[in-house]
Design brief:
The complex is a heterodimer of chains A (about 325) and B (about 250).
Chain A lengths: L1 E10 L2 E11 L4 E5 L6 H8 L7 E6 L2 E2 L4 H7 E4 L11 H11 L4 H14 L15 H13 L5 E5 L7 H15 L3 E5 L3 H7 L2 E6 L2 E6 L1 H6 L7 E6 L3 H10 L3 E10 L2 E8 L8 H12 L2 E7 L4 H18 L1
Parallel strand pairs in A: 3-8, 3-9, 6-7, 7-8
Antiparallel strand pairs in A: 1-2, 1-4, 4-5, 9-10, 11-13, 11-14, 12-13
Helix pairs in contact in A: 3-4, 4-5
Chain B lengths: L1 H18 L2 H21 L2 H4 L5 H4 L2 H13 L1 H9 L1 H6 L5 H21 L2 H10 L4 H28 L3 H17 L3 H8 L4 H8 L3 H9 L5 H27 L1
Classes of the chains: A alpha/beta (about 325), B mainly alpha (about 250).
Chain lengths: ~325, ~250
């Protein structure tokens, strides 16, 4: 549905987006991750046809967004960053205006507004002026606007920014549900959101894609992915470390803490041992040795770690260049 | 046809925005008070002893100089400030539809304000026997003049997110368009420049093209003059918005 090829955008001499390429198909929820100023919003604005790219191609539903953006725009709903809305209008008036620009009128318009209001829980403020709304309601008003014409593609720039945990949960549920039949691209810097909602995530840093994969694939890139963390009672760490190191599968053992008879350590497997069996190998050893195991779990790796290691090192490289 | 529907939807919203705040009513009251003040006190409507609205229309270029930029200054700067411009221009509409819709809405607003001066037409008809054709021409000219100023305000408002800056720049441009044809200034210029040069410069002035309307002359050339200012300024608005989006 969306195809972006070698997209570039320069502001003056600085490239905000520098050679971004990706494709998204129906049924995918694509998360855009990246530090502030990485080029997420700029990329989204270019996909929406709001900013012309310096170089590169964008096609939405087969329509070129640079040469002929109107048919592509019809397919998309957009929630801009900071969720703007006309503050002098009521929620109903604002949605009515947006519906008219989407070419809806009469019954179709009424029905579209009704649906969007239901999906975004706006009934209670429908006839309130937008500038009297709390941030959460205002955000959802702007979101409702993007859903009016039941678009095939949704581009959401930080859809959960500034919402309380309940509202965040509602929006995520909504995104996940709609993601089954639509294409959704959304940006965020909340990593748990990516894990909860996305079928695929792209990490952008300094205008370039630095990682692209499912949340699980990305997490596997974390240095602790596949490691086993165990907590033992009444066994000195030196003994455990020695036994563990003797195992062929173990690459390294780290003692995390040792106090009051409780030892916590992390056991990192060799590269070829990163699979489901490593935790069993460790568990079997513990059984053989008769260790009093309190806890044993395999780490999935944290998206946080991956995000930090990828984007930090890139930034540092930039600083030393 | 959808193009026209888009223009209509935008114009409707924009006009609604004027009347949803007290600013519109305050503006209309100020406009009517000032129009009255200029006509009766400065223009000496009664002392002239003529059954005409000359003293009413004569001051319109000056009256509009401040009032029209006040109406037009928010057109685009407010969209930029609130970020709604991104919302508006990512809708399946063209920039021209948005520019035209907004312009027509604020022009309609000014037309409403102008029409509310109708009591003065009744007054002059009650007091004497004026040529209502001349009065009609005066209104046509006044509306075109307001449109020209407004298009300039639309242009300056696209330049900045700050309404005050937009207001000042558009007042300066409109003032320039007045003074190059304003009697006292052209007289001064004639004293040290050739008459042809002064005439050429004056032909760019709104005064030169507004005067015939006050005399009851609806000349195609004057209409074309005002319309071309409108088209040019709206076109420039589009260019500025495009440049702004391109960064």
């Amino acid at each position: 549905m969306i195809k972006v090829e070698n997209l570039k955008k320069a502001f003056g001499a600085k490239y905000a987006v520098n050679g971004v390429s990706f494709a998204v198909e129906r049924g995918e929820v694509l998360g855009f991750l990246g530090p502030n100023g990485a080029g997420k919003s700029t990329t989204m604005r270019m996909i929406m046809g709001f900013i012309p790219p310096t170089d590169g191609k964008i096609s939405v539903g087969g329509f070129d967004m640079v040469e002929n953006p109107i048919p592509g725009k019809r397919l998309m709903g957009y929630l801009p960053e900071n969720a703007p809305a006309y503050t002098d209008m009521t929620v109903h008036g604002f949605l009515g205006f947006a519906a008219e620009l989407r070419g809806l009128s009469g019954q179709a318009k009424k029905k579209a507004i009704g649906n969007a209001v239901d999906m975004c829980f706006l009934e209670s403020v429908l006839y309130q002026s937008v500038d009297t709304l709390s941030k959460g309601y205002r955000h959802r008003t702007s979101l409702a606007q993007s859903l009016l014409h039941d678009p095939d593609i949704l581009i959401l720039d930080e859809p959960t920014d500034g919402l309380d945990p309940n509202q965040k949960h509602e929006i995520r549920t909504l995104i996940r549900r709609m993601g089954e039949t639509k294409v959704i691209i959304f940006s965020t810097h909340i990593l748990e959101e990516v894990e909860a909602v996305c079928s695929r995530a792209i990490i952008i840093d300094r205008g370039q894609i630095v990682a692209n994969g499912t949340p699980r694939e990305l997490k596997a890139r974390s240095q602790n992915a596949g490691a086993v963390t165990m907590s033992l009672l009444a066994t000195p760490s030196s003994e455990v470390t020695a036994k563990l190191s003797a195992l062929a599968a173990v690459k390294e053992t780290q003692v995390i803490s040792e106090d009051a008879g409780r030892t916590v350590l992390r056991c990192i497997p060799n590269k070829d041992q990163i699979n489901g069996t490593f935790s069993r190998v460790v568990a079997e050893l513990a059984q053989r040795e008769g260790w009093r195991l309190e806890e044993l779990r395999m780490e999935e790796g944290k998206l946080d770690d991956v995000f930090r290691s990828i984007t930090l090192s890139e930034t540092q490289k930039g600083a030393t260049q | 046809m959808s193009a026209w529907n888009n223009v209509k939807a935008i114009a409707k919203r924009e006009l609604g925005a004027y009347f949803s705040s007290p600013v519109a009513y305050v503006f209309i009251v100020i406009f009517l008070l000032l129009a009255g003040f200029f006509t009766f006190n400065v223009g000496q409507f009664f002392q002239i002893g003529e059954a005409s609205l000359t003293s009413f229309f004569y001051w319109h270029p000056w009256l509009y100089l401040f009032l029209v930029p006040a109406v037009g200054m928010r057109l685009w700067s407010e969209e930029r400030r609130q970020g709604t411009m991104e919302l508006l221009l990512t809708m399946p509409i063209t920039t021209w539809q948005a520019i035209l819709g907004k312009f027509l809405a604020s022009w309609a607003f000014l037309a409403i304000a102008l029409l509310l001066t109708f009591p003065i037409v009744i007054t002059v008809n009650y007091l004497g026997d004026p040529d209502n054709g001349i009065i009609f021409a005066g209104y046509v000219g006044s509306l075109l003049l307001a449109g020209a100023y407004l298009a300039i305000s639309s242009m300056t408002s696209a330049m900045t997110r700050n309404q005050v800056v937009s207001f000042i720049v558009s007042v300066v441009i409109c003032l320039f368009l007045i003074i190059v044809g304003f009697g006292p200034v052209t007289d001064l210029l004639t004293s040290w420049g050739s008459a042809a040069l002064v005439d050429t410069v004056a032909s760019f002035s709104v005064i030169t093209h507004f005067d015939p309307f006050q005399k009851g002359l609806i000349d195609l050339r004057d209409i074309v003059f005002f319309l071309s200012i409108i088209v040019f300024a709206l076109f420039t608005t589009g260019v500025i918005i495009r440049a702004h989006r391109a960064g």
